[in-house]
UniProtKB/TrEMBL annotation:
Lineage, uppermost ranks: Bacteria, Bacillati, Actinomycetota, Actinomycetes, Kitasatosporales
One Gene Ontology biological process: proteolysis
Official protein name in the record: Clp protease N-terminal domain-containing protein
Residues covered by the Clp R domain: 2-185
InterPro entries: Clp_N_dom_sf, Clp_R_N
Source organism of this protein record: Streptomyces ardesiacus
Record-linked Pfam families: Clp_N
Length: 188
């Protein structure tokens, strides 16, 4: 499948691997793909994010992703659902971090003493995003998978990245409006 990726899409995948390494995560996850997309400039996805106002709020988006990671990857809606059951996720995070240190619940992070050797694999969620990007490209009748397809796939897949993007007005519908409908025409 990677042979169908454009240079920009490959750079996003490589950037996601680097973000996973920096976070000491065992696998690349959808959040790492979004962080890599936020790093890009001069690509279709960066154009779409800038057009939708995320360009000047990239640091806020990064902070929201860090906060979700600290909550063991739970989205705000999942946190609210647990609160409805009487479970205060903030309190649990505070207690765990009091005993085990800040970031102890960070989803996917390796214990500090363990060495990493070899290649970083992709988690189930990241694989789903890559597969969905292929489906999006095919549906739009595009021959190659670009970084815009990765962004569209992240907006379509339920989870923290889609929730964070939607909180900034970036949805599949708004992206389709900005990027066009796949026929080369920008939708009004």
């Amino acid at each position: 499948m990677f042979e169908r990726f454009t240079k920009d899409a490959r750079a996003v995948v490589q950037g996601a691997v680097e973000h996973a390494e920096q976070a000491r995560a065992e696998t690349v996850e959808p959040e790492h793909l979004l962080l890599a997309l936020l790093d890009r400039e001069g690509s279709r996805a960066s154009f779409a994010l800038a057009a939708l106002g995320v360009g000047e709020h990239r640091d806020v988006v990064r902070q929201e992703l860090r906060e979700a990671r600290r909550r063991a990857g739970l989205s705000r809606s999942e946190t609210e659902a647990l609160a409805g059951l009487g479970i205060d996720v903030s309190e649990i995070v505070a207690r765990v971090e009091e005993v085990h240190g800040v970031g102890a619940l960070s989803a996917g992070d390796r214990p500090r003493g363990r060495r990493w050797s070899g290649h970083r694999g992709f988690g189930r969620g990241a694989k789903e995003v890559l597969e969905k990007a292929l489906r999006v490209a095919v549906a739009r009748r595009d021959r190659h998978i670009g970084d815009e397809h990765l962004l569209l796939a992240l907006a379509l897949r339920p989870g923290v990245p889609a929730e964070v993007l939607a909180g900034h007005g970036v949805t599949h519908a708004s992206l389709t409006r900005v990027l066009g409908d796949g026929t080369g025409q920008v939708c009004a």
